[in-house]
């Protein structure tokens, strides 16, 4: 049975394990943004034995690069980007403690395997709804790789940020079930 769930970020592993593909989730708390260039930088830092600029444990990375904020707004349009572009980095980050990812589109089997192995979750945010999603972001600050512009890592404070569980911790994939 699909459910509406309200979750606090960083995530609680037991709550993540209770999620099922198709559940609607409203996230409140701290999440981080990172796209292709930031993922490459984090991978290179790990290869050099350096610490990452964010603590991955139980945290969520939102694959998003915002547009500039309009006057009086915290952030510009904040829609998801295609998750598969981060697939080569995701298993390593999941193995290091990342618990949630938000994006859009399908993931490779290696990512699903890492989600299951780490009792994690992949959420989808609605593409094309970036302006609407930005209203759930209450605070945004660049915390790493400022030179990357929109692809810099940002710390976001969100309130009732709407997502759908696409791949749950048991490996059930909403896309596979719905798009047969």
UniProtKB/TrEMBL annotation:
Lyase keyword on record: yes
SUPFAM superfamilies referenced in this protein's UniProt entry, alphabetically: FumA C-terminal domain-like
Residues annotated as domain Fe-S hydro-lyase tartrate dehydratase beta-type catalytic: 9-177
InterPro entries: Fe-S_hydro-lyase_TtdB-typ_cat (IPR004647), Fe-S_hydroAse_TtdB_cat_sf (IPR036660)
GO molecular function, one term: hydro-lyase activity
Family (UniProt): Belongs to the class-I fumarase family.
Record's protein name: Hydrolyase, tartrate beta subunit/fumarate domain protein, Fe-S type
Species, as recorded: Blautia hansenii DSM 20583
């Amino acid at each position: 049975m699909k459910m509406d769930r309200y979750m606090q970020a960083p995530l609680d592993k037991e709550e993540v394990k209770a999620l099922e593909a198709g559940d609607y989730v409203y996230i409140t708390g701290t999440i981080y943004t990172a796209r292709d260039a930031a993922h490459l930088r984090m991978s290179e830092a790990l290869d050099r034995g350096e610490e990452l600029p964010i603590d991955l444990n139980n945290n969520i990375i939102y694959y998003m690069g915002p547009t500039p904020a309009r006057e009086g707004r915290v952030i510009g349009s904040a829609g998801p980007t295609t998750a598969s572009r981060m697939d080569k980095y995701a298993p390593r980050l999941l193995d290091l403690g990342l618990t949630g990812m938000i994006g859009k589109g399908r993931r490779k089997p290696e990512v699903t395997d890492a989600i299951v192995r780490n009792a994690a979750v992949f959420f989808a945010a609605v593409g094309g709804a970036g302006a609407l999603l930005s209203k759930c972001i209450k605070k945004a600050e660049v915390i790493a790789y400022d030179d990357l512009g929109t692809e810099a890592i940002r710390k976001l404070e969100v309130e009732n940020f709407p997502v759908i569980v696409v791949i749950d911790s048991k490996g059930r994939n909403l896309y596979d079930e719905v798009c047969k």
